[in-house]
Write a structure and sequence with these properties.
2 strands; 2% strand; 11 helices; single chain; globular; mainly alpha; two-stranded antiparallel ribbon
């Protein structure tokens, strides 16, 4: 595959990059990626379907889990067209409007996921530290407000980014290092000062992911203090067990995000494939693993999934008979 040089680039086009030097293997590489995307879609749709159809799961904890599944699903679908487009059709060219639209959804949904994880930590805090007022504090109206505020905060903070990028002239190159569009990568291609973008990007991260992670840590510090004050060892384990799935989701989200940021800022000397793999882990690991973790660790979800499979199997056996 040959990338056009700068003189032949059209002003309204970026060029995405897959696994450089492995173009002959793209057909084979598409198999695991297609499997991952299918698993993400089926897993999160299953979680959403079970919560929607089972009235016993219409509780705050599961409403927040549905928000997480919906966000993970949206994040997956935001990258699917360009990632699989490169593997299947070698479709590397993307218009600037389409690129900025993809960028907006990727970054917005990432911030929404951070907000949802914070909401879930608040849910665990109230359930463990103030259980008698759980249903009166986390009402449906309160949950809706928390969900809407997460979306609005994220969208309004990310909305200026495409406009900040639009004012640049991209005189160096239009070739991106990934198979989808990210703000940090695109602004590095600009031939003018990117100080404003740097400052605003740090501001957005600080007042969203930074604040959210701090509040999540604080909520778990309070949860830990409450749990350790419980006299019964069995009750302490039961209280901790209700938090395991959420802690896994938090780690799955924040560790790849921190890793990708470090690689982008300090890993210029690293091979391109390291940047590529870190970006895929950041965007695909949480949507892929979250449904698995919650299906295994949450008894109610696991039992409903098993019942669904048993029902489907019984139907298939009945039709064969």
């Amino acid at each position: 595959m040959t990338i056009p040089d700068n003189s032949s680039l059209q002003k309204a086009t970026f060029f995405l990059t897959g696994f450089q030097g492995m173009e002959d293997l793209h057909g084979w590489l598409s198999i695991p990626f297609c499997s991952i995307y299918m698993t993400v879609i089926l897993g999160n749709l299953t979680i959403l379907h079970i919560i929607r159809t089972d009235v016993t799961l219409h509780e705050p904890m599961y409403y927040f889990l549905a928000m997480l599944a919906f966000t993970d699903l949206g994040l997956c679908l935001s990258t699917l067209p360009t990632v699989l487009g490169i593997f299947w059709f070698d479709a590397r060219e993307i218009g600037i409007p389409a690129c900025f639209t993809q960028l907006f959804f990727i970054h917005t949904l990432s911030l929404v996921e951070s907000s949802v994880l914070l909401s879930m930590s608040i849910d665990r805090y109230v359930a463990i530290c103030n259980p008698l007022h759980y249903s009166t504090i986390l009402t449906r109206a309160c949950i809706v407000k928390m969900g809407l505020s997460a979306v609005l905060r994220s969208a309004l903070l990310i909305l200026p980014l495409p406009f900040l990028l639009k004012r640049f002239q991209y005189c160096r190159s239009h070739v991106l290092a990934h198979s989808y569009c990210l703000h940090l990568e695109i602004m590095k291609l600009a031939c003018s000062s990117i100080v404003v973008n740097h400052i605003y990007g740090l501001f957005v991260v600080a007042c969203t992911v930074g604040v959210d992670s701090l509040l999540i840590f604080l909520s778990y510090a309070l949860i830990l203090r409450t749990v350790l004050s419980i006299a019964s060892h069995q009750e302490r384990l039961r209280a901790f067990n209700t938090c395991v799935s959420h802690i896994c989701a938090v780690l799955l989200f924040y560790i790849p995000m921190i890793g990708l940021s470090l690689v982008h800022r300090f890993g210029e000397h690293l091979p391109h494939i390291v940047h590529l793999l870190m970006s895929y882990v950041y965007l695909l690991a949480p949507p892929l693993i979250n449904p698995i973790v919650y299906s295994i660790k949450t008894n109610q979800i696991r039992e409903r999934i098993i019942k669904k499979f048993e029902f489907v199997r019984s139907l298939m056996c009945f039709r064969q008979d």
